[in-house]
Amino acid sequence: MVQKSYAGLGYDEVVRKYAKTVASACLMKLNNWADAEDCFQNTFLKLYTSSPAFENESHLKAWLIRVAVNECKNTLRTRGRTLSLDSAANIPVFMKEADSDTPPALLMKLKPKHREVMYLYYCEQYKVAEIARILGKNENTVKTLLRRGREEFKKRYGGDDLE
User: Fold this and answer.
1) What residues contact 74, with CB distance under 8 A and at least 6 apart?
2) In the prediction, which pLDDT does 111 show?
3) Is there a contact between 123 and 104 (Cβ–Cβ < 8 Å)?
4) Pick from 8-17, 19-28, 94-103: least confident
5) Which of 60, 64, 75, 162 could form a disulfide linkage to 54, CB 3.0–4.6 angstroms apart?
6) Based on the domain organization, do 111 and 31 belong to the same domain?
């Protein structure tokens, strides 16, 4: 049996390399570990079953994040419920690397619309244009969300060096 290749990587390699990224994107969108796990699994299932062609690993990573975000949106739409930010205790172990003051853990406490773009910009190091493409938003909308997210972050945690 021929093993599928995704931008030169085998399926198992893709899962190992991008599991944390996809899980974090799902958790940032849903703030609920159980739903994030479902979306995580669906994302990698779609990769395996659809076998899209990728130009490079950057294209693969962006595709995985985009599919994960869409899976999360579908979950929110079909379940018809609102997000509750009152329980940051649901942050999984991989998000608690040193303590709850890590950037991803602090981002979990922001509004969902800010949390998503802030995570992609600061944690995944995407540029505004790439974030806009991944999330299907206008670049100016992403810039506005980043600015407001920074303001919210500064108001909550202080500091002037967040740019």
Assistant:
1) none
2) 85
3) yes
4) 94-103
5) 60
6) no
**End-to-end alpha-carbon separation of the chain, Å?**
49
Q: Taking the model in full, what pTM does it have?
A: 0.68
From the centroid of its chain, how far is CA 89?
A: 18
High-pLDDT (> 70) share of the chain, %: 80
Q: Provide the CATH number for the domain around residue 133.
A: 1.10.10.10
Cα angle 34, 93, 22; round to 5: 60
Do 72 and 3 reside in the same domain of the chain?
A: yes
37 CB burial (10 A radius; 0-12, 13-18, 19+): middle
Residues 6+ positions from 124 with CB-CB distance below 8 Å = 21, 25, 65
Q: How much is the pLDDT for 89?
A: 44
Mean pLDDT of 112-134: 89
Full domain range(s) for residue 102: 97-163
**Which pairing describes strands 9-10 and 5-6: parallel, antiparallel, or unpaired?**
antiparallel
- Paired tokens of 94: 């991989």
* pLDDT score of 37 more than 80: yes
Kindly state whether residue 35 falls inside one of the protein's structural domains.
yes
Give CA–CA dist 91/28, Å, rounded: 10
Instruction: Give the span between the Cα atoms of 135 and 117, in whole angstroms.
Output: 9
